[in-house]
Each structure stands twice: as C-alpha cells, then as structure tokens.
Amino acid sequence: MYAFTFERPSSTADASKLLTNASAKALAGGQTLLASMKLRLASPETLVDLGNLSELTGICRDGDNIVIGAMTRHADVATNADVLASIPALADLAAHIGDKQVRAMGTIGGSLANNDPAACYPSAVLALNATVHTTQRKIAADDFFQGMFTTALKDGELITAVSFPATRQAAYMKFRQPASRFALIGVFVAKTATGVRVAVTGGGQGVFRHKALEAALASSFTPAAAAAVKIDSAGLSSDMHASADYRANLISVMTQRAVAKAMG
C-alpha cells in the first residue's frame, strides 16, 4: 500500500462533497478497490469510506418495487424475505456472488458503480429494468451502463439505492471462472408484463442486452426458442480463459438454462 487520506463522513452530503475531488475514491465493500490499490492499478489520494452511512443500507417495499440501499451487502440481499418473495432470481444471484467473505462485505452499490464487465449485479439491473437512484437523480438501467468500468455517474454523484420491479418469472445462470468466481458468461432472463429482457455479463466490454434472444423469447418463452437463436461471436471477449466462440456458445446454453429455471 501507499500513503493516502482516509475519510469517514457521517452523511451522504458530506461524502458527495469529498468525492468531487478527482483524486478521491468511494470505499463501499472494498472488494475491488482495495485489491486494485494493492496492485497499483488504482492510486487514489483520498478514500471516502461509506460504511458509516446507515441511510444507504436496507431493503424495503415501495408499492410493486423492491428498493435496496446502495450499501446493502450481497448476503443480506440473498436472505431478505421481500426479495425472496418478489424477485427470487435476484436473491439467487446474490447468493452465488464470489465466496462467503465477498458476500459478507461486498455491496450492490459498489458493484454497480465499479461496473466490472464480468460482475453479476449489472445483468440483474439491466434485465429487470431497474432504476438506479443517486444523490442527484434517477437513472434508468438502459442509460446507466456505458462500457468497461464506466457508468453514467458524475464526479461526486453517489448511488443511494436501486429500485427493482417485482418479477417472479426470471432467472440468472452463470458459468464461473473457477479461480476468480466471476462469470465467464452470465445470463439474466426476465419475463414481465412489458416483455422479455435478456442481459449478458462476462461477454465483452460490459453488460449488454441481447436483442435477438429477447425477440425469440417474446414469441415463445421456451429453451427451444433460445436454442434456435444463432449467437454471433463478433465483439465478444477472447482471452486465456475462453475464446469468443466459446463464450458465444455459453450465451446460448446459459440462456436456455435460465429460461428453463424461470419457467419452474
């Protein structure tokens, strides 16, 4: 590590003010940031610890929506009664992020703000058409994710909560990279009154919707309909863990499994 200033604000307003400094970084669960700092991939001069902001923690109902505070831990999302009852697929996703230590410390807000291209939560936010609440505005899922480690958040803007529409016919399936436990490919499928949304993580520069799969599943919400869609490998990642063609095949397989799971 190296020398930096550590701040622990007592209010969201104070945290936002500290984060207007370009050399400052917000510390949520720390599962990504601290590791990046150790590897010298990130070198903030100031760490702004959000752990003291109780207003950013918790889960509640708001009409037909489930609202999850940005500092809510993965383990709490996985076991919350309201999430289990209204969006069981989201609880299942949270229950299989990383390992027990990661789930005990990692937060939904931290995951979304970091927007790792292989993270699980972005696929849920995009497929469920969630709304990201910040200290300045509300951002629709389709507008929030803008590429690898890039979001619509501005300097000093903090995620405060995420609002998910209740959706019971949904499922998330991922093929894990054994060492990191990140998704080589993860697919979140959701069928709602307004249509079908399919979000893919682990495939490229960031989470994305697969429109061809959405169209096929809107006509017939079955594994066979998903299997009939040819997945183009163009633009998908190719690395030491999997080729682009392999990832394309995984998108098809994981989608079929997710649909079968959503159907019950």
TrEMBL record:
GO terms for MF: FAD binding; oxidoreductase activity
One family name in Pfam for this protein: FAD_binding_5
Keywords assigned: FAD, Flavoprotein, Oxidoreductase
SUPFAM superfamilies: CO dehydrogenase flavoprotein C-terminal domain-like (SSF55447), FAD-binding/transporter-associated domain-like (SSF56176)
Entries under SMART domains matching the protein: CO_deh_flav_C
PROSITE patterns: FAD_PCMH
Segments traversing the membrane: none
Domain (FAD-binding PCMH-type): residue spans on this chain: 1-169
Transferase listed as a keyword: no
Protein name as catalogued: Carbon monoxide dehydrogenase
